[in-house]
Write a structure and sequence with these properties.
- There is one protein chain.
- With 397 residues, this protein is an alpha/beta fold.
- It folds into two domains: 204 residues, 3-Layer(aba) Sandwich (Rossmann fold); 151 residues, 3-Layer(aba) Sandwich (Rossmann fold), CATH 3.40.50.2000.
- The chain has twelve helices and 13 strands.
- The strands form two sheets. A seven-stranded parallel beta sheet has the order 3-2-1-4-5-6-7, with helices on both faces. It has a six-stranded parallel beta sheet with strand order 10-9-8-11-12-13.
- The protein is globular.
- The two termini are 24 Å apart.
């Protein structure tokens, strides 16, 4: 028998446990659910949590209900290995989608859906989680695309060689076909940027694609305080450390740029959840702090002069940039890192080559970065206020 569910309700299916919001995808989820539920929308949340994640922080949000299911094997590595093997030798779904297509998991998800009225819309928060849903429910799907997923694999393949390149290209094409299936099945697909919307529209002319930005709370202008330590510029990187674009970008920065900055003039904090063991090679480097996962990033932003986004390939929108600008901090990024953001040329400092990064950093100052942050905040506030973004989704619902 179905629960008594309001007409103003949505079944929200997520691929992660979103609390605490300690990476970009979780922040994006929390910043849409919170203003939506605060406005009266009844959010029934189903989180498909990796089996190896056991530390689940209680939800701080006003949810109508919350249900958890498990996916994958006992570890991230074991899950990826078995999924890659199956995808190569058994065919069908790309390896990153396979953990969500487990038969028992799909059956449990079907049972969860049957608790609710059949007309209740289903919001798919990320591409891969669509695999847990019965295809006959697709008339109710609202797909929220965090990235153009197949494009990420395609771009990554350009940077590697050998068997890994062949595997990534093979998987990119499988993911492309799956992504096309999802956007064609859904009632609407919400991209996080106009550039991503354009990519999805190119993927299928049959899909309905709209733009729904990632939001932040721009209700109050921040303090633009900068470092009080004369001659020291405090740099900050925030992001999930085992997301491949972040991993690649950090290694590139630490190898090609960090050793060539003026000695003693910079301090760098690297903050983020996920496996950052590859960073151990730089532990002990003068001025470098490997912070890992932290309870709150607020104090790290408060101490920073400049936030770094050294990504060489990516899709979607970098939540870390929106978050930095919201908190009154300037950003230095590559073009790939700033992809999809509608901020204009005066809101961010952009550099591509190591030489450009080195020159900008060595000739900059805390005052210069503060001035950049002051110019950027009004532009970011106009485009990325979370309440207006949530209301756009509510109107569609």
């Amino acid at each position: 028998m179905a629960q008594s569910t309001s007409k103003n309700a949505v079944l929200w299916v997520a691929p992660r446990w979103p609390f605490p919001p300690d990476d970009g995808a979780k922040v994006a989820m929390e910043r849409l659910i919170r203003p939506l539920s605060d406005s009266g929308v009844q959010v029934e949340l189903l989180s498909i949590v990796p089996a190896w994640e056991t530390d689940l922080t209680p939800s701080p949000l006003r949810l109508a209900s919350l249900h958890i299911e498990r996916r994958g094997g006992a570890s991230r590595f074991a899950t990826r290995l078995s999924s890659a093997f199956a995808s190569v030798f058994l065919g069908g779904l790309p390896y990153s989608v396979r953990p969500f297509s487990n038969k028992a998991l799909r059956a449990r998800t079907r049972s969860w859906l049957e608790q609710f009225p059949t007309e209740t819309p289903i919001l798919i928060d990320g591409l891969h989680v669509a695999a847990v849903l019965p295809p006959e429910t697709s008339s109710r799907w609202i797909y929220r695309a965090h990235n153009v997923e197949w494009r990420i694999l395609e771009d990554f393949a350009v940077l590697v060689r050998g068997p890994k390149k062949l595997f990534l290209r093979h998987q990119a094409q499988r993911l492309r076909a799956y992504e096309k299936y999802v956007i064609e099945s859904a009632r609407v697909s919400f991209a996080v940027s106009r550039s991503d919307a354009f990519e999805l529209e190119k993927l299928s002319s049959r899909a309905r694609v709209e733009v729904l930005h990632i939001g932040a709370d721009f209700s109050k202008e921040p303090e633009y305080t900068h470092s009080q330590r004369t001659g020291v510029t405090r740099l900050l990187f925030v992001g999930r450390l085992d997301w491949e674009p972040n991993r690649d970008g950090l290694i590139w920065f630490l190898k090609e740029i960090w050793p060539h900055l003026t000695p003693g003039a910079f301090e760098l904090e690297i903050v983020g959840s996920g496996d950052g063991s590859y960073l151990e090679a730089w532990r002990g480097s003068s001025g470098l702090s490997l912070c890992g996962r932290v309870e709150s990033v607020q104090k790290h932003y408060a101490a920073a002069d400049l936030c770094l986004v050294p990504l060489r390939w990516a899709s979607g929108t970098r939540v870390k940039i929106i978050e930095a600008l919201q908190l009154g901090r300037a950003v230095l990024s590559t073009k790939a890192g700033a992809l999809g953001l509608e901020l204009g040329s005066k809101a961010l400092e952009i550099a591509e080559t190591p030489e450009e990064w080195i020159s900008l950093l060595n000739t900059g100052s805390a005052k210069k970065w503060e001035d950049l942050a002051r110019r950027a905040w009004p532009t970011a506030a106009a485009s990325y206020g979370e309440k207006a973004i949530a209301m756009k989704l509510k109107e569609f619902l």
